[in-house]
Amino acid sequence: LPNSDPRTRQHTLARPVTAHGHGIHGGRPATLTLHPAAVGSGIVFERSDLPAGRNCIPARWHRVVETRLCTVIANGRGATVSTLEHLMAALRALGVDNARIELDGPEVPILDGSAAQWLALLDEAGLATQPAARRSIRVLHPVRITDGDKWAMLLPDDAARFCIDIDFSEPVIGRQHYELSLDAASFRSQIAAARTFGFVRDIDALRAQGLARGGSFDNAVVIGTDGVLNPGGLRFADEFVRHKLLDCIGDLYLAGAPILGLVVASRPGHALNVALLRALFAQRSAWQPEYGSPAPFAIPRRLAA
Ligand SMILES: [Zn+2]
After folding, report:
1. Catalytic residue among 25, 35, 243, 270
2. Which candidate in 14, 148, 160, 238 could, as Cys together with 302 as Cys, close a disulfide (CB 3.0–4.6 Å)?
3. CB-CB contact of 15 with 35 (8 Å)
4. What angle do CA 38, 107, 59 make, to 5 degrees?
């Protein structure tokens, strides 16, 4: 082994775990099972309702086909998986390098609209240390992209850090800023519970397009003209920017490995997050693979199978 410190090695799940829910857009029931996977296999989705041999989709940036309301990946053989970003954020934060994710339809269950239940599920599974060094992606020089009034950049840093700004005209959101040094503990206490959000004024148009059909107070913060409509209100005063940060963490894990660098983003969304990855990987000199960088753990590790 390159290093005896288990924190520097790859991890998978210690055992399979299953979640039941429904898709926020299609509204259909969905069952998802996370399985252990081999060293170096990364995060791969497998559509159990489609024929074997063409039902696997690696959770990678070059597989992204849609980013308007959620992130959608496809394999070019008819299989797609949408709304994977909250699960991807939980996998990234806890240091899961390899997992096979079995899903019985096109949409990952939305659960409560945050990553809190994905964290609970991963806690239930536990992690297994694997006999290979973790691969990370170290940012070597700045990468910057703009899209109208949105922009994002990646800068060299020894940790995975995020500085996110949002600016909405709705007074209940307004301008919000959040900074995070990402590790399992900070994600668990500050980010995981932040829910996705949407506006009442958009609901009719979305539903006419077959979207948001599974959306409700149970899985989203719903904003009307007078503010938040959910009976329980917000989980954090700045829940909106925390959720944008959650999405950013999940989308950037489509790099295929943890990124060591500082992400600075203004008004980020799925399209901007994926565009940032495209810009990073378009410049071979902007990054290098790094083996054996430690990741902190906050859930029990079990012996490797
Ligand atoms: Zn989200």
Report:
1. 270
2. 14
3. no
4. 35
* Rounded CA separation 55/77 (Å): 8
Helix (H, G, I), strand (E, B) or coil at 54: coil
How far apart, in whole angstroms, are the C-alpha atoms of residue 116 and residue 114? 6
Check if 270 is active-site.
yes
Amino acid 122 reads L
Name residue 133's amino acid.
A
The CA distance from 291 to 278, in Å, is: 22
The pTM score is 0.95
DSSP 157-168: -SSEEEEEEEE-
Residues 255 and 244: their CA atoms lie apart, in Å, by 18
6 DSSP assignment: G
Ligand 1 centre distance from Cα of residue 282 (Å): 26
Question: Comparing C-alpha atoms, which of 163, 86, 256 is closest to residue 154?
Answer: 163
| Tokens describing residue 98 | 């390899």
Mind giving me the DSSP string for 160-223?
Answer: EEEEEEEE-SSTTT-EEEEEEE--HHHIIIIITTPPPEEEHHHHHHHHHTT-STT--TTTSEEE
Residue 22 CA to ligand 1 center (angstroms) comes to: 15
Question: Per this entry, what is the length of the chain?
Answer: 305
Mean pLDDT for back-to-back runs of 10 residues, the chain (305 residues): 72 98 94 98 98 96 94 95 98 97 98 98 96 95 96 96 96 96 96 96 89 91 95 97 98 97 97 98 96 61 42
N-terminal to C-terminal alpha carbon distance within the chain: 16
Q: How far is the CA of 303 from the centre of ligand 1 (A)?
A: 33
Phi and psi dihedrals of 139, rounded to 5? -75, 130
